[in-house]
Amino acid sequence: MNPIKIIIAGPRGRMGREAVKLVSNTTHFELVAVVDHKYDSMMLSDLEGFQTIHHVPIYNDIEKCLQTIKADVLIDLTTPEVGMFHARTALHYHVRPVVGTTGFSKEDLAELEEICQKKELGCIIAPNFAIGAVLMMKFSQMAAKYFPDVEIIEMHHDGKLDAPSGTAVKTAEMISESRIKKQQGHPNEKETMNGARGANFDGMHIHSVRLPGLVAHQQVLFGSDGQTLTLRHDSYNRGSFMSGVKVAVETVMKHNHFVYGLENILE
Ligand SMILES: NC(=O)C1=CN([C@@H]2O[C@H](COP(=O)(O)OP(=O)(O)OC[C@H]3O[C@@H](n4cnc5c(N)ncnc54)[C@H](O)[C@@H]3O)[C@@H](O)[C@H]2O)C=CC1
Ligand SMILES: O=C(O)C1=N[C@H](C(=O)O)C[C@H](O)C1
Predict the structure, then answer these.
(1) Strand partners, 230
(2) Which candidate in 95, 102, 173, 222 could, as Cys together with 147 as Cys, close a disulfide (CB 3.0–4.6 Å)?
(3) How far is the CA of 238 from the centre of ligand 2 (A)?
(4) Is 156 a catalytic residue?
(5) What's the ipTM?
């Protein structure tokens, strides 16, 4: 069987570095190029930390990369604006995107879904690749049927650009599907300081914490008469996301449609 040919966008990032390791160490994957906004025309092995990764050219321009290099899958781990441009461009060149980048809008997701339908191509957008985080989201969705009062607290490292996190948004979306519609807290509550109650998604509140020392953590707190239920997931390193990246790459090759959320492909 031919290996799956993969381009990684954002290889020097916290996630990108782990993804380079994963792809290089997986026998049925082949890293054929990387997309970075620096070091055009150099080889990945020229960069510090990548000396053992041979024959992988660096491109600044994704179009040029996709025109030159034959690839099956693009793994994007960059920033929301760049990630959306990359995913759209990859589909245009018949390359299947696996996107971990968060911060996409509803409109972005709808646009990608439409392109996938037209092109009959697979694309996976996964706000969180960690299996434990996906389970936390699913358990939250189950619990919300019985506990409609819920608040989400997501906690991340202070290098994170988007808030709330993609995971928190996805959790709230999944909860919304199972809980009765509800505006939480006192109907007359007032913030005496802006933002005190966090973001409001469909009546439930999301609080974003950013601190050095953290990686990626989330608590989903449910409250009811005389009891609370807390579901919590912690990622202590970026290795925690890699088994999900691997499954997503393998699965996207078998799909001809758009998928938003790893829970939709886990067996
Ligand atoms: N789905 C998941 O499980 C996870 C998703 N993430 C998301 O992945 C994204 C990346 O996260 P980190 O690696 O922590 O961020 P990071 O800031 O460490 O890495 C982002 C990388 O993108 C690169 N970049 C920026 N513009 C670019 C361009 N035009 N072309 C190519 N590369 C470009 C930067 O040079 C940087 O190396 C974020 O959106 C984050 O929320 C992070 C962890 C897990
Ligand atoms: O930026 C991060 O680090 C993470 N981003 C994703 C998100 O926004 O949910 C996934 C994970 O939480 C780590």
Answers:
(1) 221
(2) 222
(3) 10
(4) yes
(5) 0.99
